[in-house]
Amino acid sequence: MDDCIFCKIAAGDIPAERVFEDDHVVAFRDLNPQAPTHVLVIPKRHIATLNELKPEDEAVIGRMYGAARDIAEQEGFADAGYRTVVNCNEAGGQTVFHIHLHLLGGRMMHWPPG
Ligand code: AMP
After folding, report:
1. CB-based contacts of 2, cutoff 8 Å, min separation 6
2. 87 lines ligand 1 (CB under 6 A)
3. Residue-by-residue pLDDT tens, the chain, 114 positions
4. Is residue 85 part of a domain?
5. Is residue 114 part of a domain?
6. Domain with 93 in it
7. What is the largest CA-CA distance in the chain?
8. Is 90 in the pocket of ligand 1 (CB under 6 A)?
9. pTM score, two decimals?
10. Which DSSP state fits 21?
11. What b/e string do you get for 57-66 counting C-beta neighbours within 10 Å, with b at 16 or more?
């Protein structure tokens, strides 16, 4: 998608602090972190929201969670615990319409979320 900021990050056209990349996913630090570690894991292929997920996207969603697990290990909070979040559409708080997994760690999380 030409006007998608996360497609541009995936392509390397917009800078981001990458912490992980493979053939199908990229992970980079959030510009406005909500925890000591706040990383976004995205598929390289444009998928706008969870609502647009197709059966053929299941493998890349699995890779996104695998990347989050590995990054939590690298960042040192895998055992302590962390949170993963996917926001969907306006009521879910989604502001960038290229699906992304938030990985938040390094502090105690609270429930319910805001
Ligand atoms: P959401 O509200 O779930 O759509 O999350 C979008 C996230 O993208 C927010 O946490 C923003 O801080 C983050 N964000 C937006 N633009 C960038 C960017 N260029 N680089 C890194 N993070 C970004």
Report:
1. none
2. yes
3. 789 999 999 999 999 999 999 999 999 999 999 999 999 999 999 999 999 999 999 999 999 999 999 999 999 999 999 999 999 999 999 999 999 999 999 999 999 997
4. yes
5. no
6. 5-105
7. 39
8. no
9. 0.98
10. E
11. beebbebbee
